[in-house]
Amino acid sequence: MSETICISIDGKVMAAQPGDSILQTRLHGPEAVTANIGCMGQGVCGSCRCLVRKAGERETVSRLACETEVEDGMQVSFIDYYQPDHVHRYRPHDLRDGWQALPQLQQTFPETAHCRHCGGCDRACPRGIPVQQGIALASRGELPAAAALFDACIMCNLCTLACPENIRPNHVGLYLRRAQAIQNLRPGDLLRRLDQQARGQLSIDTTAHLARSES
Amino acid sequence: MSTAISYQQACLNRASHATPPLRADDLSRAALLAQHHPDHAADASTLLQIGSSRGQPCHPRLAELLQSNALIDGFDLAGAEQRSTDVLVLGGGGAGAAAALTAARGGATVMLASKLRLGDSNTVMAEGGIQAALAASDSPQQHFDDAMRGGHNCADPQLLAQLASDAAGVIRWLIELGMHFDLTDASCDGGKLRYKQAGGCSQPRILSYRDYTGLEMMRVLRETVELEPGIQLLNRCPVVELLSHEDGSCAGAVLYDLEYQRFIVVSARQTILATGGCGRLHLQGFPTSNHYGATADGLVLAYRLGAQLRDMDAFQYHPTGVAWPQRLRGGLISEAARSAGAMLLNGLGERFVDELAPRDVVTAAMLRECAAGRGIERDGQQGVFLDLRRLCGPDQPALASQLPALQHLADKCGIDPMREPMLVYPTLHYQNGGVVIDSQGQSSVPGLLCAGEITGGIHGRNRLMGNALLDILAFGRRAGRQAARLAQAARNKSSLPPLRGGIEHVYRWQRQLALAGLDASQQAPLLYPGQARLTLHRPASARA
């Protein structure tokens, strides 16, 4: 483990331990890390997205730095988050009427129909989600099938960055998943408990445990 | 490090039992905790010397930060950008998002400032699920009883009763925002909820979404906040100090804008701290499952302003952190694995504890095995086995569909969980104590509310699985609602923008530090846990 290798992070050459992730290497650097970092290895927050090029290769791929092991000669460039200048606003209660699902999707994300099938989103996704297929299904009105494809999306926004038509595919996916829950999820257990509590039933005795601990 | 059984030998011992035997226990739970839980180590507690909880026990590392000097001085505020809002929410996890959404819904103008980025938090990393007593056989009373017992009867009964009673309303709110939950029968109209068993609970009560419940929750909350016109979002703006009025009440906060490297002074009618816990302090030398930002910032600032704290010597060490490989050390394996039947084995191939006992008990039992030389050593890392064989039987669905996050983790470890056990060791997971609050999230300082892991009292001295996700939403919403109400009342009295505060409380604090002979050169909050410290920008004229 004493052998060290060199990688370049945002233009600065750093020594790295083989087996470490890109993120761990960056944390050993001289500067305080204040962005592109969150869950530190679980791979769920999407903050540490970066572009990676391996030594001797031409292709640049997008990766999560916390899940990617360093290799000698690797070049890494972190991708900042920014607030996009224009997003389509909607509110959860706008999604309640399932009969309006398709026109509403078209109104909220009109770019969805403009997909030119370049595959950029698929290549960008660190989770291997077939993003382009999801967008194709959505624009055809196959909403549940489209929603299901985005189940494991971590909202890293790499597909949104990659899309030349500004489709924002991960946000379309999340919109469809949310609409599904908002329209369909009415568990009987929950309805009954809410009703019981609205009637003032099931209040809690906050002293019962005292009697028990004395006995 | 004490002696341990080699990985190879432990694998042989494990293979020698078709059904691992459960060793009979010779210690009561209380004795086990007293002898082996990290909270009870001789060097795990000291008494606070100054502040409103003076004389109370606290972990020494945390006490250092609580009794430290401010990062800023009065001249940092001169020329800083001034802003004002009805409600200022500090913290971008689940509690902050819930508070901000509820306050905005209550008609307040809301500013949400986050040190990292909205959603980069422990919430998004939560895997197991959220407790809600919804099943016909269950009740809020049973939920209350389980959590009270799990917390060693130390919880504030009023807060805990609210936690249990709020659960149904919280789940409804999450569904209204578009969150999914696991169902047993998706074809049933409206869905039939699936309940999982949590350690220390009398019956299955955990609602989940696969084993990435927190991700599902946080992506929905983040999208809702980002699309909410009533909330102004400030990412990468850590809070460096709170502001006070002459009467000692909270007047807002000073933020540091990392992008422009300057201070922002936010005057607020009500301030909500939702800055989470302190896992990145690596208390007692333990690894942590917490995210990068968990450095107790809000706790330090609230205490400096005069808020009372409780149970600052009670921490949760989650039993199943990754112990091998070293680079993933501390990463979490959800309790959902044990809930589904995973076993803990020592180096002799024996089970040594009920895997679904409360977390502090399981952790203490694991540490006892390691201390007694029955732990397992692999490449210098010590732990016990988490054996997944019962999840991998022929009649079981594939692990990748039961627990996809665990399968993903096993892949990263290079382990085939069908054949090989995982090496696990306790990992610092949760701060049980924190700021004392009332039923609406109000701290002992007027104008300052708190929600989420920063608060204390809800869970007593040990939290049960699934009660954190419930806590952040139940009390995040309560704090948001209360802040909007109070801000409205203040606006009714005076339509002028909120009054500007100052940092008089910091000067008072510095006098107390000096009187107590404490080191005033130590500054906090830490903001970022790495070795390299961030230097806050100061005007050239003020540089030393």
Strand order of the largest sheet of chain A: 2-1-5-3-4
**Helices and strands of chain B: which structural class?**
alpha/beta
N-to-C span of chain B: 45 Å
What's the CATH architecture of the largest domain in chain B?
A: 3-Layer(bba) Sandwich
What structural class do you assign from the helix and strand content of chain A? alpha+beta
Provide a count of the helices of chain B: 16
Helix content of chain A: 25-40%
CATH-wise, what's the superfamily of the largest domain in chain B? Answer: FAD/NAD(P)-binding domain
Helix proportion of chain B: 25-40%
Q: Which value, in Å, is the CA radius of gyration of chain A? A: 23 Å
Beta-strand content of chain A: 5-15%
- Low-confidence stretches of chain B are none
From the spread of the alpha carbons, the general shape of chain B counts as: globular
The backbone outline of chain A, from C-alpha atoms, is flat
Main interface pair?
A-B, 67 and 80 residues
| Whole-number total of structural domains of chain A | 2
Low-confidence stretches of chain A: none
**Strand content range of chain B:** 15-25%
Q: Give the tally of β-strands of chain A.
A: 5
Structural notes for this entry:
The complex is a heterodimer of chains A (215) and B (544). The model of chain A has no long low-confidence stretch (mean pLDDT 93). Chain A is 34% helix and 11% strand. Chain A is flat. A five-stranded mixed beta sheet of chain A has the order 2-1-5-3-4. Chain A has 215 residues and is an alpha+beta fold. In chain A, α4 packs across α7 and α5 packs across α7. Chain A is built from nine helices and five strands. Chain A folds into two domains: 74 residues, Ubiquitin-like (UB roll) (Roll); 93 residues, no CATH class. In chain B, a hairpin with a 4-residue loop joins β12 and β13. Chain B folds into two domains: 146 residues, Flavocytochrome C3, Chain A, domain 1, CATH 3.90.700; 300 residues, 3-Layer(bba) Sandwich (FAD/NAD(P)-binding domain), CATH 3.50.50. The longest helix of chain B has 27 residues. Chain B has 16 helices and 22 strands. The mean pLDDT of chain B is 95. Helix content of chain B is 31%, strand content 18%. Chain B has 544 residues and is α/β, with parallel strands linked by helices. In chain B, strands 4, 5, 10, 11, 12, 13 and 21 form a seven-stranded mixed beta sheet that branches. Chains A and B meet through α7, α8 and α9 of A and α7, α8, β8, α9 and α14 of B.
